[in-house]
Write a structure and sequence with these properties.
40% of the residues lie in helices and 16% in strands. The chain is built from 19 helices and 18 strands. Strand 1, helix 2 and strand 2 form a beta-alpha-beta unit. Helix 5 (163-175) crosses helix 6 (180-196), helix 6 (180-196) crosses helix 8 (206-217) and helix 10 packs antiparallel against helix 11 (279-290). The radius of gyration is 24 Å and the shape is globular. Bound molecules: S-adenosylmethionine (SAM). S-adenosylmethionine is lined by residues 9, 11, 17, 20, 54-56, 76-79, 82, 104-105, 121-123, 126-127, 131, 225. S-adenosylmethionine binds next to strand 2.
Length: 542
C-alpha cells in the first residue's frame, strides 16, 4: 500500500514514529480500573479480542500478545513502514495471536470481528475531525456490548500555556526543507535558541520553557509526529466525554489510577466543590485542579453497578495485588501536583504485614485471617487507595511466590522461554532504551534497562562465566561509555570498565533477576553455577 499525502488527513507520514511499550494498555490495567468503578470488565480467562488503532511499530501490541497467549490481537496502521515491521516481528517470534492490517481508518476491511478491547494511543488528538468520525464509527461497529475502549488525547487546561511552542515549531518547520524530521530539528533549534535567550513568552510561561528543554532531548521522530500534524487538537475532556456519550459509551474511568480520585487531583480545601456534581463536571474540575495536559480515558456501554466487596472481588477474580516495592514501609507519602497524600497506620500497616512479598486477589485479601479485624468495605477501599498511591501494584495473574532470594538463585543456568523475549534481548548495540519483556504471569510487559538486557542475553546464551568481562566487551563493541557517578568522568580504562561492569551485574543479580524469575520471564533449567556478584561502585553511562 502507498500513501497519497493528500489522503493522509494531514497526518505526518513521510517519517516513521518510534516504538514504545505503554503499560496502561494492558487488559489487566484496563479491567482493574473499570471493575474498581463497578463496571463489569470483559472476562479474559477463556480468550479475548483486542484491537489497537494506530499501532505504530507495535511494541505494545506485540508485548501484550506475547504475554497473553489466550488473547487475539489486531493492530491497524496505515504506514507500511510500521506494519511491515510488525509482520516481520510476528514471523520471527512465531506469534500466532497477532494480525496486523495496513489500512486507513477511513477504509477498514469489512471482515473485522468484534472486540473486547479497542485502544487508541496517540491518535485521537492527532488526526482530522473526519478521521475521528471514522474512528468512532469503527468503535461503534466493532466493540462488543461488554467491551471497553481506551483513548488518549491532549487536553486543556494543561496545553494552554504550551500552545506557543507548537505554533513556533509548526511555523519554522513549514519554512524549512527536507523530510519532517529534518524540518522539525531545524525548527526546534530555532525555538531552543529563543528559549535560551529567555524571551518574554518563555520567561512568562515557564512550563513552555520546560517543554522546549524536554523536546531538545527527545527523539525527533516523536517530535515530528506529536507537533507537525495539521489537525492536532487539545480537547476539553467534556467534549470527548460528550462525543462518546452520543455513541452510547459512558466514561469508565481513567489512568493513571489515582486520577479516578478527585482527592488526589485537587487540594482538600476544595472538597465542597466536588459534591453532588455530574461525572463530566467532576472530570473537568479535576483537569483544572491538576492542570492536566494528557488523558487516558476508558469508555464502556455497561452501567456502573453498586457491588458488595464480594461481588467486586468476583468481577475480576484474576487480578492480583502486591506490594509495589521491596521493603515498603509506612508512612508512605506521594505528591501528585498540588496534592500530597500519605498512608500511615491501619489498615495498611496490617496489609503490608499480611501481603509480604506475595500477590493476592481481592477475594484472598477479604478472606485473610490477618485482616479479619477490618470490614470488607475497608479492605477494598484500602486496596484501591494503596494502588492509587503506588503502594500496591495490580497485575493480571499471580507472581511466583515466594521471591527467590538472590543467593538461592545462582544454582541453575537460566533460560528465557518466550521467543518474543529472546528476540527483544538480541540487540545490535546498547541503545540507551528500556527493553520491554513479556510476562506470562502478570500478562503485561516488564521493562528493564538496556544494560540489564545485555546481561540477560549473555546469561541466557552463554551462562555466567566471566559475565562482567562479556558485558564490558559488549559495551566496547557498541562504543558505549560508562561514567563514574561522583565525577561524571568517562571510564575508558578496560580494567576499570570490567570493575564497573561487575557492579552492574551485581545489581542485576540482586534486584532485576529475582523479579524476572517471579514474573516467569526467566526460568531455571539446570545446575550450572551462575556466580555471585556484589555492587560497590555506582556508575552511570552515556
Ligand atoms: C503517534 S502514533 C502512535 C503509535 C502507537 N499507538 C504508539 O503509541 O506508539 C499514531 C499512529 O497512528 C497512525 N495513523 C494516523 N492516521 C491514521 C489513519 N488515518 N489510518 C491508520 N493509521 C493512522 C500513524 O501511522 C501512527 O503510527
Amino acid at each position: 500500500m502507498t500513501i497519497d499525502p493528500d489522503a493522509s488527513g494531514g497526518y505526518v507520514t513521510d517519517v516513521a514514529y518510534l516504538p514504545g511499550y505503554y503499560p496502561f494498555m494492558a487488559p489487566s490495567r484496563i479491567r482493574h480500573v473499570a471493575s474498581s468503578l463497578g463496571i463489569r470488565p470483559p472476562a479474559t480467562d477463556k480468550g479475548f479480542d483486542y484491537l489497537e488503532l494506530g499501532c505504530g511499530f507495535g511494541a505494545t501490541l506485540l508485548t501484550l500478545a506475547a504475554a497473553n497467549p489466550l488473547g487475539r490481537f489486531t493492530g491497524v496502521d496505515f504506514m507500511p513502514v510500521h506494519t511491515d515491521h510488525i509482520d516481520r516481528e510476528v514471523a520471527a517470534c512465531g506469534l500466532e495471536n497477532v494480525r496486523v492490517l495496513c489500512a486507513d481508518f477511513a477504509a477498514m476491511p469489512a471482515d473485522l470481528p468484534q472486540f473486547d478491547f479497542i485502544t487508541l494511543h496517540g491518535v485521537f488528538s492527532w488526526v482530522s475531525p473526519a478521521l475521528r468520525e471514522h474512528v468512532l464509527g469503527i468503535i461503534q461497529r466493532h466493540l462488543k456490548p461488554d467491551g471497553i475502549v481506551e483513548v488518549t488525547y491532549n487536553c486543556m487546561p494543561g496545553w494552554s500555556s504550551l500552545l506557543p511552542v507548537r505554533s513556533l515549531l509548526r511555523h519554522f518547520a513549514s519554512r524549512a526543507t527536507g523530510d519532517s524530521v529534518t524540518r522539525v530539528k531545524e525548527a526546534l533549534a530555532t525555538v531552543a535558541a529563543m528559549r535560551k535567550a529567555d524571551i518574554p513568552v518563555f520567561h512568562d510561561q515557564p512550563l513552555a520553557a520546560q517543554l522546549v528543554d524536554r523536546l531538545v532531548q527527545s527523539d525527533p521522530h516523536y517530535v515530528a509526529h506529536e507537533y507537525l500534524n495539521e489537525h492536532w487538537t487539545a480537547f476539553e475532556s467534556a467534549e470527548v466525554l460528550d462525543t462518546f456519550a452520543l455513541r452510547g459509551l459512558a466514561h469508565a474511568g481513567r489512568l493513571p489510577y489515582h486520577q479516578n480520585h478527585w482527592q488526589l487531583c485537587a487540594n482538600h480545601q476544595f472538597a465542597g466543590q466536588f459534591t453532588g456534581l455530574d461525572l463530566t463536571t467532576i472530570e473537568t474540575l479535576k483537569d483544572f485542579h491538576a492542570n492536566t495536559m494528557f488523558r487516558w480515558d476508558l469508555f464502556s456501554a455497561r452501567p456502573r453497578e453498586a457491588w458488595t466487596p464480594g461481588e467486586r472481588a468476583a468481577a475480576a477474580a484474576d487480578l492480583f495485588f502486591r506490594v509495589a516495592l521491596p521493603n515498603a514501609s509506612l508512612p508512605h507519602t506521594v505528591t501528585y501536583g498540588a496534592v500530597t497524600a500519605g498512608l500511615v497506620g491501619p489498615p495498611h500497616d496490617r496489609m503490608l504485614a499480611v501481603m509480604g512479598d506475595s500477590s493476592w486477589s481481592l477475594a484472598m485479601l477479604l478472606d485473610a485471617p490477618g485482616l479479619a479485624a477490618f470490614a470488607p468495605e475497608a479492605v477494598v477501599e484500602a486496596v484501591d487507595i494503596g494502588v492509587a498511591l503506588g503502594l500496591f501494584r495490580v497485575e493480571g495473574g499471580p507472581i511466583i511466590d515466594p521471591i527467590p532470594a538472590a543467593e538461592q538463585l545462582p544454582t541453575g543456568s537460566l533460560s528465557v522461554p518466550l521467543s518474543f523475549n529472546r528476540r527483544a534481548l538480541v540487540r545490535d548495540d546498547v541503545a540507551n532504551e528500556q527493553v520491554s519483556l513479556a510476562s506470562p504471569r502478570t500478562k503485561a510487559g516488564h521493562p528493564i534497562g538496556d544494560l540489564h538486557a545485555v546481561i540477560l542475553d549473555e546469561l541466557a546464551r552463554g551462562g555466567s562465566d566471566a559475565i562482567e568481562l562479556r558485558l564490558a566487551d559488549r559495551l566496547i563493541a557498541a562504543g558505549k561509555h560508562l561514567r563514574e557517578h561522583a565525577t561524571g568522568r568517562p571510564i575508558e580504562d578496560r580494567a576499570e570498565l570490567v570493575h564497573a561492569s561487575r557492579d552492574i551485574c551485581g545489581g542485576f543479580f540482586q534486584t532485576v533477576l529475582p523479579e524476572l524469575v517471579r514474573q516467569e520471564i526467566v526460568v531455571w533449567t539446570s545446575d550450572h553455577p551462575v556466580g555471585s556478584h556484589t555492587a560497590s561502585m555506582p556508575v552511570s553511562r552515556e
